[in-house]
């Protein structure tokens, strides 16, 4: 009734203020004019006006045979709605729309839209008036016993109680044939109790409980972010999930993430318990839980076995595209923060200024397989929006790469065969660097049989000579190649810096 727009008022073509006057027993409405010439259908009459008409109808010299019929309250409203012939009204409105314009036309269009929707759904207008009020299940309006023996109850119970008390009192008044004015007053109070139950505070005085706090009605429970739909139905809290702050994990591989031990033991607890019992470390679930709470070394070892090869999903809100949720192999780390590889940050639009991420554990084998095959971070290199790489080095990674590959003019290039500066493989160079036998920017000769990008390919080698065994040795500025008699590469040494090898 109090909704904007009010569909009851639109259907009946009566102003909303007049509909309220009828419902709250302030005015009568004419349901049938009878033989009275001065009355119109759906006309509103005050108490005094109706008394005058009654005197006129029942006067000795009255010529009115068919008495006019009036009604008041929701019963009258229901009668008016039942009398509507929607098909006929729709036809009349369509004819009227063709000849009208401006504000009147807009009003007619609004009314015909409502009528068309009623016809399309086979709904009857009188269904908008409730004869019985459904009571929601007790679990949704609980009562909790407090320490002192008292009860804390949901506001809905108070609102329902008011409706029931007033309804019972009305039934008793009708049984004892109480005066009409008292019955009407009780009906109005019942209507107000129902209003408060459905939407407290929308009309009239707000019903308050203890501490002068407005009681939460059905509408308050449904609406808003904390309402039933958005809180409980559209999204729910799920098992096998957690969330924590993210920090950078530069030592991780791209498909790995650091999972705090505390979180991992909670997420994988059922798997850990199962394995502890299967390995006869404990006999039952209770003992396994006690062992887990102690944080025993055996438990950590079992946890490590459990998470091996079991991918987890990381999600960062808002999930705007499919790369907002990706799969990673978990690595157990200390602390309470999730470690994330810096290269996957652009896909999540994540940074490390306090962002949080949610963890989910795929349980079924199919889910684990899909996570590994489709969602693993190292398989999602390209952006689904543009097709361009989304995993691109930035900031300190670029700076580090530049520093590693930079040339320093004060280092001399060694001659080929210098024992200190010639290595049999790339691994030997890295080993020598870690052993501090060679600096990061020093030149070295290293054996490398792979392809080499070289700007000198169009030129001839600096020196080319035949050896006694029939092989040929070519010397370039930055490499030495040895070929056999069939021109197959036997060995290749390249001149490069240690940083470029790393």
Brief overview:
The chain is an alpha+beta fold and 502 residues long.
Structural write-up:
The protein contains 19 helices and 17 strands. Helix content is 38%, strand content 16%. It has helices spanning 7-12, 16-23, 47-57, 74-82, 86-98, 103-120, 155-175, 180-199, 218-222, 228-233, 261-267, 269-278, 285-294, 297-307, 345-348, 365-375, 396-405, 426-434, 498-501; strands at 28-32, 44-45, 69-71, 143-145, 151-153, 241-248, 256-260, 312-315, 325-333, 338-340, 356-360, 422-423, 443-447, 463-466, 472-475, 479-483, 489-497. The chain folds into four domains: 7-128, no CATH class; 138-233, no CATH class; 241-268 and 310-379, Barwin-like endoglucanases; 405-501, no CATH class. The strands form four sheets. A six-stranded mixed β-sheet has the order 7-9-8-11-6-10. A six-stranded mixed β-sheet has the order 12-13-17-16-15-14. A three-stranded antiparallel β-sheet has the order 2-1-3. The longest helix has 21 residues, at 155-175.
What's the SSE blueprint?
Elements: H1 7-12, H2 16-23, E1 28-32, E2 44-45, H3 47-57, E3 69-71, H4 74-82, H5 86-98, H6 103-120, E4 143-145, E5 151-153, H7 155-175, H8 180-199, H9 218-222, H10 228-233, E6 241-248, E7 256-260, H11 261-267, H12 269-278, H13 285-294, H14 297-307, E8 312-315, E9 325-333, E10 338-340, H15 345-348, E11 356-360, H16 365-375, H17 396-405, E12 422-423, H18 426-434, E13 443-447, E14 463-466, E15 472-475, E16 479-483, E17 489-497, H19 498-501
Parallel strand pairs: 6-10, 7-9, 12-13
Antiparallel strand pairs: 1-2, 1-3, 4-5, 6-11, 8-9, 8-11, 13-17, 14-15, 15-16, 16-17
Helix pairs in contact: 5-6, 7-8, 12-13, 12-14
């Amino acid at each position: 009734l109090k909704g904007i727009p009010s569909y009851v008022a639109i259907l009946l073509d009566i102003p909303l203020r007049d509909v309220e006057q009828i419902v709250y027993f302030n005015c009568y409405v004419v349901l049938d004019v009878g033989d009275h010439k001065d009355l119109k259908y759906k006309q509103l009459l005050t108490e005094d006006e109706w008394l005058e008409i009654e005197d006129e109808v029942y006067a000795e010299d009255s010529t009115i045979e068919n008495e006019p019929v009036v009604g008041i309250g929701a019963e009258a409203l229901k009668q008016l709605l039942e009398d509507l012939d929607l098909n006929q009204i729709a036809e009349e409105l369509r004819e009227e729309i063709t000849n009208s314009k401006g504000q009147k036309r807009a009003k007619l269009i609004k009314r015909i839209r409502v009528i068309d929707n009623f016809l399309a759904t086979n709904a009857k207008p009188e269904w908008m008036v409730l004869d019985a009020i459904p009571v929601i299940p007790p679990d949704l309006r609980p009562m909790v016993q407090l320490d002192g023996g008292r009860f804390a109850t949901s506001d809905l119970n108070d609102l329902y109680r008011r409706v029931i008390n007033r309804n019972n009192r009305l039934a008793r008044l009708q049984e004892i044939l109480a005066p009409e004015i008292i019955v009407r007053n009780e009906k109005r109070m019942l209507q107000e109790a129902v209003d408060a139950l459905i939407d407290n505070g929308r009309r009239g005085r707000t019903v308050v409980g203890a501490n002068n706090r407005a009681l939460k009605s059905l509408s308050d429970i449904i609406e808003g972010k904390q309402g039933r739909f958005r809180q409980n139905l559209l999204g729910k809290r799920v098992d096998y999930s957690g969330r924590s702050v993210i920090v950078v994990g530069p030592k991780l591989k791209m498909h790995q993430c650091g999972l705090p031990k505390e979180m991992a033991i909670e997420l994988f607890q059922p798997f850990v318990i199962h394995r502890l019992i299967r390995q006869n470390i404990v006999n039952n679930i209770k003992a396994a839980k006690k062992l887990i709470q102690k944080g025993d070394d055996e438990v950590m070892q079992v946890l490590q076995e459990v998470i091996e090869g079991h991918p987890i999903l990381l999600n960062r809100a808002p999930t705007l595209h499919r790369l907002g949720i990706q799969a990673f192999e978990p690595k157990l780390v200390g602390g309470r923060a999730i470690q994330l590889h810096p290269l996957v940050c652009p896909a999540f639009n994540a940074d490390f200024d306090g962002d949080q991420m949610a963890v989910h554990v795929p349980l079924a084998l199919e889910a684990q397989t899909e996570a590994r095959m489709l969602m693993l971070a190292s398989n999602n290199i390209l952006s689904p929006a543009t097709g361009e790489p989304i995993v691109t080095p930035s900031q300190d990674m670029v700076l580090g790469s530049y520093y590693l590959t930079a040339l320093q003019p004060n280092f001399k290039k060694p001659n080929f065969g210098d024992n200190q500066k010639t290595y049999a493989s790339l691994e030997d160079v890295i080993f020598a660097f870690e052993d501090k036998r060679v600096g990061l920017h020093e030149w070295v000769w290293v054996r490398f049989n792979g392809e080499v990008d070289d700007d000198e390919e169009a030129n001839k080698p600096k020196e080319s000579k035949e050896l006694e065994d029939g092989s040929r040795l070519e010397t370039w500025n930055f490499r030495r190649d040895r070929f056999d008699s069939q021109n197959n590469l036997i060995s290749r040494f390249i001149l490069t810096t240690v940083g470029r090898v790393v």
